[in-house]
């Protein structure tokens, strides 16, 4: 575990021949649980096994635990899976994307985050992202009467106990369409715009918001309602043509079964790190492709450069790529995880180093130890707990 600005959990596997592979097991706010799951329950099972048997190892960790799915289990399995792919690709002397079928495109389109508590601040933030070359931008905004720009986590908030934020869905729904009206007027019709509702609306509210935002031609509306209620998306889908993206908190293909089979969404948001690794995420993308659903891998700062790199290899290789979220990292994080992937003019490329192309500076990592930190929690104006 290391905290070069925020916490990351990294697994390193070493073979008898001295080949090493890295995997990301970071689960924001629950890091110690995954680290312990790995060190106490997974590492003893791996010692002495054949690192080339990736599918078999995945199945034995998934089925062999008896207790299935869940973010802690799947982040731990993901770390093993990615480390084994890293090893296999290094042994082959190829960048991972070559083992996934080779490249389907030359570079990986990203979107970046813009946010502001009011319109001038938001416009400045969008302009800053455009100046950095981002070809698409996620727009989050302050809501009159609420204290914080929601869904945006500041590292300054880090503390031993969660920060409590406030929320009012009615005020949000009244305000957001007006924000997109102003953004479209200022930045024109071409700039792809995204928006993250962060699980806060009921299906009928989400349907209404999707409809209200149709004139502004969003690239996607994300997590419009808590999607463990997959059936709820039928109501949203019937009522709006705004494209929908879901899945950053999912950890198994079964979480998507209704959403994909009934084509209720347009983008699947799972990351390598939280979905059990490259092995199951490639299967999810192939399943999604049957329904013309595309990828939109979750890429906040709380996915480490190791998990990010694994995702970029997949982005380059799959046919039904949509977009990749990329928020960048602190300078120190880049130093702790020296990497072959590059970010140029808003596009990522995994690089051509053998493996996933990320190393870990263990000395520097150790100089920045784990620091307890929680995500915020949300309360309505009367004090009721609400989805954050
Ligand atoms: C997104 C997100 C994240 C999450 C974060 C929680 O990037 O779309 O919703 O920023 O809030 O990953 O740990
Ligand atoms: Mg999100």
From TrEMBL:
It comes from the Bacteria. Residues 120-243 form the Mandelate racemase/muconate lactonizing enzyme C-terminal domain. Transmembrane segments: none annotated. Coiled coil: none annotated. It holds the Pfam family MR_MLE_N. This is Starvation-sensing protein RspA. It comes from Kibdelosporangium persicum.
């Amino acid at each position: 575990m290391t905290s070069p600005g925020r916490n990351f959990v990294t697994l390193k596997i070493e073979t008898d021949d001295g080949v090493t592979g890295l995997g990301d097991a970071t689960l924001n706010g629950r890091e110690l649980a995954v680290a312990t799951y790995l060190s106490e329950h997974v590492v003893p099972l791996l010692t002495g096994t054949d690192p080339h048997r990736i599918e078999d190892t995945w199945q034995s960790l998934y089925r062999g635990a008896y207790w299935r799915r869940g973010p802690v289990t799947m982040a731990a399995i993901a770390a093993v899976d990615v480390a084994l792919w890293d090893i296999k690709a290094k042994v082959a002397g190829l960048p991972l994307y070559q083992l996934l079928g080779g490249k389907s495109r030359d570079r990986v389109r990203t979107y970046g985050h813009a946010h502001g508590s009011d319109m001038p601040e938001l416009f400045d933030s969008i302009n800053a992202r455009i100046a950095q070359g981002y070809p698409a931008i996620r727009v989050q905004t302050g809501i009159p009467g609420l204290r914080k720009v929601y869904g945006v986590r500041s590292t300054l908030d880090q503390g031993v106990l969660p920060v409590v934020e406030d929320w009012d869905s009615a005020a949000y729904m009244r305000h957001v369409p007006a924000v997109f009206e102003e953004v479209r007027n200022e930045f024109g019709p071409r700039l792809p715009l995204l928006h993250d509702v962060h699980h806060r609306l009921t299906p009928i509210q989400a349907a209404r918001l999707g409809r209200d935002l149709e004139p502004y031609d969003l690239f996607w509306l994300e997590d419009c309602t808590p999607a463990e209620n997959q059936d709820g998306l039928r109501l949203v889908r019937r009522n709006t043509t705004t494209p929908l993206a879901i899945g950053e908190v999912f950890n198994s293909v079964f979480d998507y079964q209704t959403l994909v089979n009934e084509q209720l969404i347009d983008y699947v948001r799972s990351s390598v790190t939280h979905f059990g690794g490259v092995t199951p995420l490639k299967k999810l993308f192939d399943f999604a492709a049957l329904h013309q659903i595309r990828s939109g891998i979750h890429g906040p700062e709380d996915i480490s450069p190791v998990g990010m790199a694994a995702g970029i290899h997949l982005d380059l290789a799959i046919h039904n790529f949509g977009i990749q979220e990329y928020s960048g990292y602190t300078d120190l994080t880049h130093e702790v995880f020296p990497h072959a992937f590059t970010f140029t003019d808003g596009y990522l490329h995994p690089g051509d180093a053998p493996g996933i192309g990320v190393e870990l500076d263990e000395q520097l990592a150790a100089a920045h130890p784990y620091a307890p930190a929680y995500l915020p929690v949300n309360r309505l104006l009367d004090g009721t707990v609400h989805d954050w």
